[in-house]
Amino acid sequence: MPRAGLDPTAVVAAGAALADEVGLAQLTMGLLAERVGVRTPSLYKHVGGQEDLNRRIAALALSEAADAVGGAVQGYAGRDALAAAARAFRAFVLEHPGRYAATVGLEPSGPDDPLALASRRLLDAFTAVLRGYDIAEPDVDHALRMLRSFCHGFATLQAAGGFQWSTDIDESFEWLIAFTDRGLRAM
Question: What is the pTM of this model?
Answer without folding.
Answer: 0.93
